[in-house]
From TrEMBL:
Keywords: Coiled coil, Membrane, Transmembrane, Transmembrane helix. The lineage of its organism: Bacteria, Pseudomonadati, Thermodesulfobacteriota, Candidatus Desulfofervidia, Candidatus Desulfofervidales. It comes from the Bacteria. The chain crosses the membrane at residues 21-41. This is Type IV pilus assembly protein PilN. Residues 47-108 form a coiled coil. It comes from Desulfofervidus auxilii.
Amino acid sequence: MIKINLLPKEEIKAVPDIKREVSIVFLFYILLILVGAYLFININGKISTLKKELQSAQIELAKYKDIQKKLTDLKKQKEIIEQKIKVVSVLEKERKKAIEVLNALTANFLVNKMWFEELTLEGNQLSVKGIALGNETVAEFMERLKKIPYFQVVELIKTEKKKIAELNLTKFTLKCNIRIIGEKV
């Protein structure tokens, strides 16, 4: 028996080799699975490495938090100490001012003619209350104070007569501004 093919040559299609195509598809899927497994393992490895780095960074951060807390406490202590130093320097300056004022007052004090009852130094304002033999003694004391550079604007606030032990004396109150030499005005 003779077989004749009546179909044109172009339309004849070769029957594909199904075994071969199935093998290629199967190998392609295996390749995809292997690539996916490789990527999965690789990414999981990176994740675990990053987790370890994160844990070590958190431990180190905890150490630095303790150090930062200590540093903050030290800064607070430093500020407190600086404030104390400022207070001490102001007190030292005021102490020196009081000593200089008292030295200047005693240097110009009229011995056996007057005495002080009260001296008050508030800031740069000095108030002197005392008793003198008379108005002339008070005036002479004021003139002496005006000549000293420490005392500025010496003012007589009040005088009044007072009898003490059968003597007629003058009670007085003076006010003046103090300027310490070398102090900024």
